[in-house]
Amino acid sequence: YMKKQEVILPEGRKGVQRIDEMERQAHEGGPYGVTAEEETEKMKPEIVLLPEPARVLEGDTARFRCRVTGYPAPKVNWYLNGQLIRKSKRYRLRYDGIYYLEITEIKSYDSGEVKVIADNNLGSAEHTVKLEIQQKEDFRTHLRHAAEPKPGDVPSESGKVSFEVVKAEQTAEDSQLKEVVKLKKAQRIVHEKSVEESEELRSKFKRRTEEGYYESITAVELKSRKRDDSYEDLTFTHTAVKIKKTLKNLNVVETQEAVFSLELTHENVRGVQWIKNGIEIQPSDKFEISMEGMVHTLKIKNCSTQDESVYSFKLGKLSCSAHLTVEFSAVSAALRVTRPMKNVEVPETQVATFECEVSHFSVPSTWLKNGVELEMSEKFRIVVQGRLHQLKIMNTSRDDSAEYTFVCGNDRVGRPLSVRFLSRTSR
């Protein structure tokens, strides 16, 4: 007998070593394909595609993904701020060779850390990323844009905000393009909060604004002042930049270009930002950023699955987001099963294993039982290692006897599973 030599390889090479071993066995006449026994080399879990940190607008969807290797198939769980995430209407979990987590209708209190943990009986692996929530702005945010007045421009008394008031005529045509803010003429504005509170507010909400005086009054006070002719109606007008045509979700195939574009109400607006998962995008060979008149464009060249993400446009307090999905195209068309499944027969309570080898590495696939798609569970374990795809049926019973089909690209291969009944005497 020839003694097999042990070769120590890095974790990432073990899947390739397994495939080489299967090819060797095929040429030497040894067993290959589907087996009923656990012959795959055992590996502790490894997260080979790490989830990325995300920054999303309140009310939008946060998306994370990862790819995990290991054998026996690791159990993968997601956690939000230490709490286990379970599949629900708001928390969407799916798997197609890559594990996905989507948190819909994101709330401000979701801000924190997202952790993924993969474990099997040989060990575990984990990775943590930040989830930042950008709150939507409302009228209270605009009231906080007042800054501390400059020395010499206004009296130094606490709580006074400078703001210039301009009297203007408003026409019916202008009303569709301009924001109109009604103000009241006043000598001076005195903040009714204490000095300590005023200084605290100013430190929190420092913003630049126009010079002059601005007064905040209640609706009751305004109604009473309308009877007083000494208060003159004034109109402050400015043209607001708005998003005319927003971003749209994109679906492209690998190697193609993805082009996000939106239109503003003004031409040649500077200072815009394009963001991927909370990180600003800089122009490069991969990303092209351009502006033509009112249209702003982000072009992503030679797309791959690594480019799947949430992309955001930001201009001051204006922002919008869209998702990019990258699909297999030419690769999908060329996908084929290079080593098909074999019929499997096992005694009940044992593990039944179907195996298929395909022409490309780490591609999505689907397993069917009598034409119905199977999902990862305690009963059905789906394992992808390089080009090798496995379906394991745990603790088999006679109910598991069926036709099992493997679908990858345009190829579809089906084989039956027979579960032998064990008599009580044989048990």
Automatic annotation (TrEMBL):
Annotated protein name in UniProt: Ig-like domain-containing protein
Domain Ig-like residues, every copy: 45-132
Organism of provenance: Fundulus heteroclitus (Killifish)
UniProt keyword list: Cytoplasm, Disulfide bond, Immunoglobulin domain, Nucleus, Phosphoprotein, Repeat
InterPro entries: Ig-like_dom (IPR007110), Ig-like_dom_sf (IPR036179), Ig-like_fold (IPR013783), Ig_I-set (IPR013098), Ig_sub (IPR003599), Ig_sub2 (IPR003598), Obscurin/Obscurin-like_Reg (IPR052385)
Subcellular compartments: Cytoplasm; Nucleus
Record has Repressor as a keyword: no
Gene3D superfamilies in alphabetical order: Immunoglobulins
Organismal lineage: Eukaryota, Metazoa, Chordata, Craniata, Vertebrata
TM helices/strands, residue ranges: none
One cellular-component annotation, GO: cytoplasm
Top-level taxon: Eukaryota
Pfam families tied to this protein: I-set (PF07679)
Chief site of localization: cytoplasm
